[in-house]
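Hello,

Following up on my earlier ticket. Below are the two sequence lines again, exactly as submitted.
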Amino acid sequence: MRGELEYKIPRKGLTVWRLYGLIYTFFLSVIAGTISFLTYQFDWSAAIYFISASVVLIAAIALIWLFPKIRWDHWRYEVREQEIEIQSGLFVVKRTLIPMVRVQHVDTMQGPILKKYDLANIAISTAATTHVIPMLITEEADHLRERISELARVAEDDV
Amino acid sequence: MMYEKYRLHPISAFINFLKALKELLFPLIILVIVNGFNFKADGKEIWEYIPLFIFLLVVIFYLISGIVKWFTFVYWFEDNELRVEYGLFVKKKRYIPFDRIQSFNYKESIFHRIFGLVEVTVETAGSTNGRPEAEFTAITREAAARIERETKKLNIGQDKDGEINVEIGGAKVSDQLQEEAHVIHKMSAKDLLLLATTSNSVGVVIAGVAALFSQIAEYIPTDWIVEEIAAMIQFGFIFIMVIIFLAFLFAWILSVMITFINYYDFTVVQENDRIIITRGLLERKRIIIPNNRVQGIKIIENPLRQFFRYATVVVESASWGFGQGDTKIMLFPLISKKEMSEPLQYLFPQFTFDLEGEFVRPPKKSRPHFYRVYILSLIPIIGLSSYFFYPAGLLSIFLALFVLIMGLWQYKTNGYLISGNQLTLRYRVISRVTFIAEKKRIQVIQKRQNFFQKRKKIATVQATVMSGLAGATARVPHLDESDADAILSWFERTRGINKESA
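Thanks for your patience. The regenerated structure is below:
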């Protein structure tokens, strides 16, 4: 059994995920509202009200409360001298191992919401895949990016 | 100093045009359908001609741009670089240093062959962006040989450090290279026949033929059929059997023809750490894979071929060949498993191909995971179809049976094997796939666990190698968690040292 990885996503990350969920739910409720309005106008079946209301309710519970929490609980990462190990996932927990020698480049990304919360995503690219560690404190993300690119440079192919 | 500048063969203007036209084929078909096949030129409304007019304009545009591209295209050799320039308004220049050139891939379509020309694409070590570095649409064989010669001359000169006397004309260099060529594999007509017969595409072709037959059936006068039905019932069975047999025969012949066109004279040659594959009847293709660009090997056996102990060998390569579809390069389209290991061992001495028996298999507790969820998800479908199509709908139970059998078969097939720096993953969806890769070629290894797997302490493992843009992934489901962890630990470089120093 391999041990649990050391680092978690900062608590602020969970808040931002909840905010994303809130935005999705908002769009969903706009759609549901439009449908309900049409139902009222054209006198469609009353069942449509209940369906759209429950869809919005379920989406709200899942996207704002449940999914971010599960995802945040699963997220862990560790950057070691020779490899990066990431644990992620919602329903399927994925544990990914990326050797330092395979890392081609590292990017940090920050949208307006992340900027407001002083967070940044970090994307690690190999020749075949890209892996994202989301929601790191900006300063920490920059530091990590530099550290990874430094380690990737000195890592030698020993096989 | 002026360097002699070379140009493409004029026919390449035409080939450029044809290539562009091929991309237009689909919009054209849509245009025709939208117009409702209505090309009566009674000239009532000028509007009716507008789509046709636009289309004509586009065709003319492509024709002109094809000619312009040919007219402006020049290439020459300067300062140890292959230099290519083309374009009228936007000049495109591409200078490729000789020592970065990995390989030249050749293709000859019918047009090329009539005029004794070839299409050449140049590939470099760094070109992973999805396109070959340079494309020569049509040049004579001599010109192609000259490009190879010029670029190689300096390569050898640099590499061997004057050890071998290489101040020679190209002819001598290429002679020297020829000597080291070694034919690995050749497909006989019998092999091709077998390939066509056992390929998955036979099924596709049969489906196509069936669709065709059903289309034709619409044109058979129905009244006549009703009258004949009485007679048919007597001969019906034989009649239907004959029809089915003919359909199968037709599909098979079609499949054989397609196979012959694509794989005629399939030859694998090894030469100077490169694998050279040539194939094709109407369109000859030559693909070169430098040995160091091979990322992994897949040995694929569909159930039919597994039964006859035959397999397909595919090479995952970082090369691009002739674009997207060629990153998976068929090394042996069909080869007997008995004869397979010797040429493979010769081509890839770094691997071991002695793979029978030693696989670490999934534990017994993971067996239900191969079919349980799928059968459960089938229950509503079976229930509904049994209810709505009562007697016939019950047949859907066989679907569950099929899923169960495939699941058990997958359970029996799956496994992994670590031998030194080599990871071998074996899994099955329908065909059995044996995926072989070196540790240094594997980009990422991932262990995946859903809730049910976690509870039973089993895990799915997948390995990704570089292949084209997205990479190629092999996935073995439901291994014991400790085995999955063992694969991860194997992939880690210096875990032991790390732990000590920490």
